[in-house]
Write a structure and sequence with these properties.
The protein has helices at residues 3-13, 61-73, 95-102, 105-112, 174-180, 182-190, 200-212, 245-256, 274-281, 293-305, 350-357, 364-368, 383-402; strands at residues 22-31, 36-44, 51-54, 56-59, 77-84, 116-122, 127-136, 139-144, 147-151, 155-159, 192-196, 216-220, 263-267, 285-288, 310-319, 325-335, 413-416, 421-422, 452-453, 456-457. It is built from 13 helices and 20 strands. By secondary structure, it is of the alpha/beta class. α7 (200-212) runs parallel beside α8 (245-256) and α7 (200-212) packs across α13. Helix content is 29%, strand content 26%. It has an eight-stranded mixed beta sheet, sandwiched between helices. A six-stranded mixed beta sheet has the order 2-1-5-6-7-8, sandwiched between helices. The protein has two domains: 3-145, Cytidine Deaminase, domain 2 (3-Layer(aba) Sandwich), CATH 3.40.140; 171-457, NAD(P)-binding Rossmann-like Domain (Rossmann fold, 3-Layer(aba) Sandwich).
């Protein structure tokens, strides 16, 4: 759910008098390759006479009917949120909780066409959640979620230990865990991270994740290793030339990982292709390590519509007429709700997205006709520059999840190599006419089909 929805729910549900309370919310689906996520961005709070407070809490029929009508009118699913003011961490369900949700699951399915979702918030702000799925006519069963994620300036996950147990620390992680503690390490390690692009920057990012103790990393890249890549790819040797970048990197991570249980899922494809796109939607955080506009356009959409933070990085190297280094800059930024999008930050040109869809960016004649300083022709890069850019991206992730001293958003960070200067952190907003804020939390219901090719569905 969005941070704003979480904070509004917390204010309403966690009362000073210790009384349980209730409200409803609207949810939309985000369907990945192996998981379905309910996205919540809007609450429906009770009015006068809508519920009864008696230690526990119960809702009146008119409140439930009003919530169902609003969900149906907006084409959304319905969720019920209530509090356990004496609990901490992931909460189970009391018999009364089960009756309240299970007995109304059929009505919600009939009104909205989507499963009833139940959520419980504990006194420490931790959430638990379940879907009520129809298993037979008029029979519904609760299916627990593996996690609930609050997404905004900070990424705050709560995990169900039965489905997503906290990892047992390994001896090789002692120094890492000593930096921020076992609780932070457990949250970090259980996040599923996607690395989009297995080039020089993506290789550094992925290795940092594996060595830090993350258990589940998805790698997406369609390209193969070329001889001219070897001066920048940390994970590749001459023996790997001709092999798929994602596969070679995945094999490397299996050997480098410090987690006792580690999986590298490899997709040899592009994020704008349907299968790779769905693999990306299975992730909790995505690293954008691509340099083409269509890939960035897709990830920009995912960050807002599907509430998956995207950590983007870029390198720009310029030479003068004498072919000597004139400038080298690298930038890292996290995009998503309450942050400016990649297009508004100037990280890609929307006009080039359509050209890439039409295949023009793979046409040598088209590329040859571009000015020498055009971003599509400026390809200079150095191992050390990629390493530095990747480090900024990894630090963005750590800040967002750990929030040291309460600081979770470092803004946009840009370093200038030539004069050894880091710009002041930049905090901006999307342009007034930007479409992305209007896509927040729409998930699969977003009208934009980012994987559709002009010549047919990819």
């Amino acid at each position: 759910m969005t941070e704003a929805a979480h904070e509004a729910a917390q204010r309403h549900l966690l009362r000073e008098d210790g009384q349980e309370d209730i409200c409803f919310g609207l949810w939309r689906p985000s369907t990945g390759a192996t998981r379905c996520t309910a996205l919540i961005d809007q609450l429906i709070l009770p009015g006068l006479g809508d519920r009864r407070l008696h230690g526990n809490v119960s809702f009146e029929p008119q409140f439930f009917e009003r919530a169902m009508a609003e969900a149906s009118a907006k084409g959304a699913g319905l969720a019920m949120l209530h509090s356990h003011p004496m609990g901490r961490g992931w909460q189970g369900m009391s018999p009364d909780d089960v009756v309240a949700e299970q007995s109304n699951a059929g009505a919600v399915m009939g009104a909205t066409g989507r499963p009833f979702v139940g959520l419980t918030i504990a006194s420490d702000g931790a959430w638990s959640a379940r879907f009520w799925e129809r298993i037979a006519p008029r029979k519904y069963e609760g299916r627990w979620c593996g996690s609930v994620r609050v997404v905004g300036q900070q990424l705050t996950p709560t995990f169900m230990n039965h489905l997503a147990p906290a990892p047992v620390p390994s001896e090789s992680q002692v120094r890492t865990i000593s930096a921020w503690g076992a609780a932070c390490q457990a949250d970090l390690a259980r996040l599923r991270i996607g690395v989009i692009g297995a080039g020089s920057v993506g290789g550094f990012v992925a290795e940092a994740l594996a060595r830090t103790g993350f258990e589940d990393v998805t790698l997406i890249d369609f390209d193969s290793i070329k001889l001219h890549n070897l001066d920048r790819l940390l994970y590749a040797t001459k023996l790997d030339v001709g092999q798929a970048k994602a596969q070679v990197l995945g094999d490397r991570l299996e050997a480098a990982a410090t987690a006792k249980s580690f999986r590298a899922k490899v997709n040899i494809g592009a994020v704008y292709e349907e299968k790779a796109y769905r693999d990306a939607l299975d992730c909790d955080v995505l690293f954008s390590c691509v340099d083409r506009p269509w890939g960035r356009h897709v990830l920009n959409h995912v960050a807002y519509a599907h509430l998956i933070p995207v950590i983007d990085g870029g390198i720009l190297v310029r030479t003068n007429r004498s072919k000597r280094l004139a400038a080298a800059d690298w930038t890292a930024q996290t995009v998503g709700i309450d942050r400016p999008c990649l297009q508004c930050l100037g990280q890609y040109d929307a006009g080039l997205v359509q050209l890439e869809r039409e295949g023009m960016l793979d046409d040598p004649k088209y590329i040859e006709g571009l000015p020498e300083d055009h971003p599509l022709k400026v390809r200079q890069n150095v191992f050390a520059f990629s390493m530095a850019c990747a480090s900024l991206q990894i630090l963005q992730l750590l800040n967002m999840v750990i929030a040291p001293l309460g600081i979770s958003n470092g803004g946009r960070q840009r370093y200038h190599f030539v004069d050894s200067k880091m710009e002041p952190n930049s905090f901006t907003e999307c342009n007034p006419n930007c479409l992305m804020p209007g896509q927040v939390g729409l998930g699969d219901d977003s009208p934009y089909k980012v994987t559709e090719h002009v010549k047919g569905v990819v």
